[in-house]
Design a protein that fits this description.
- By secondary structure, this protein is an all-beta fold.
- About 0% of the residues lie in helices and about 45% in strands.
- The protein has a single domain, classed as Beta-galactosidase, Chain A, domain 5 (Distorted Sandwich).
- The longest helix has 4 residues.
- It is globular and about 55 Å long.
Length: about 300
């Protein structure tokens, strides 16, 4: 294409028959192919990232009701970029240019500095690295408080897992013991609800079917390596993708985006979003991280075929 793509420079990385494309704008993941098969429902180079696809969500994932919160004696107002629902959504760095730290055939690392402003009165230096190997894609992220005061912080990512087939016919496994409905009062902490025996119990792989998902899952079962693993598989083709998170991410948002996406994209993929905290955490304080000056948070997640 002629001119600069809406998502800026495109960083294509490869390892064997694995391939991914990372974007300068937002430091996001636009494409991922594992074993020669696409595992993400991403977006075209000619598009601006729609629906949060592949984006980095910091310094908060999901939403802040009214875009207003108080921390450390400061009251901040974030731009309400979901005005129809009265929320700020998906952080403040997803439309910023990220700077290249390093770029090799199989690895790219990008960084972004979030400066103090009316919506966030602190300074963070963020870094996200995407690495392809025989095992798949690993995404290593960090946030450092490079300011002079303790800072509130949350982190998330927004990949849409897709296998080229409608989600109704796909099998889903989410190793979560609870889900957390958002309270009517966004200043209250969510109360986890046991999933056992209910429509949101995906601890054993089963068909998504007609289930509508806009669900925060928690109490994640983890292996000896500390990872919790979501499986999305197509029984018709035996194709599948696994999304794993380390212990830095205690929550997974699973979102089918019913009624939100254009007709041609309805129920063609599921967003599976690693998150450090639930929605509205800047209001409720639920699992909100406080970074003191000089402190660094790190978290890792990834994608694998199978």
């Amino acid at each position: 294409m002629t001119g600069t793509p809406p998502s800026g420079r495109q960083y294509r990385i490869m390892a064997g028959d694995h391939e991914a494309v990372v974007t300068q704008v937002g430091g996001g993941l636009r494409e991922c192919t594992l074993g020669g098969r696409p595992v993400l429902d991403g977006f075209a180079e000619s598009e601006r990232a729609p629906d949060g696809r592949g984006q980095v969500l910091a310094p908060f994932p999901n939403r802040i009701a009214d875009g207003r919160y108080t921390f450390g004696g400061r009251t901040c107002q974030v731009a309400m970029d979901e005005p129809e629902r009265g929320n700020a959504i998906h952080g403040m760095v997803r439309w910023l240019d990220w700077a290249e730290v390093s770029f090799t055939e199989s690895d790219v690392v990008l960084a972004c500095v979030l400066r103090p402003q009316p919506g966030y009165a602190w300074e963070l230096t963020l870094q996200v690295g995407y690495h392809l190997s025989a095992d798949g894609l690993t995404v290593a992220s960090s946030a450092t408080n490079t300011g002079i005061e303790p800072a509130p912080f949350g982190m998330g990512f927004h990949p849409y897992l897709g296998l080229g087939a409608p989600v109704e016919g796909l099998d889903l496994l989410v190793p979560a013991g609870t889900h957390s409905p958002v309270p009517a009062d966004r200043d209250e902490r969510p109360v986890p609800v046991d999933v056992t025996g209910g429509p949101l119990d995906f601890r054993s792989s089963r068909a998504v079917g007609s289930t509508v998902l806009d669900t925060v899952f928690g109490d994640l079962a983890r292996g000896a390596d500390g990872r919790a693993v979501v499986h999305l598989t197509d029984p018709a083709s035996t194709q599948g993708v696994r999304l794993w998170v380390d212990e830095a991410f205690p929550y997974l948002m699973v979102y089918s985006a019913d009624g939100v996406l254009p007709a041609e994209r309805q129920r063609q993929s599921l967003a599976v979003e690693p998150m450090t905290c639930p929605p509205h955490a800047f209001r409720s304080g639920a699992d909100l991280i406080t970074l003191v000056p000089g402190e660094t948070w790190t978290g890792t997640w990834g994608l694998a075929a199978g």
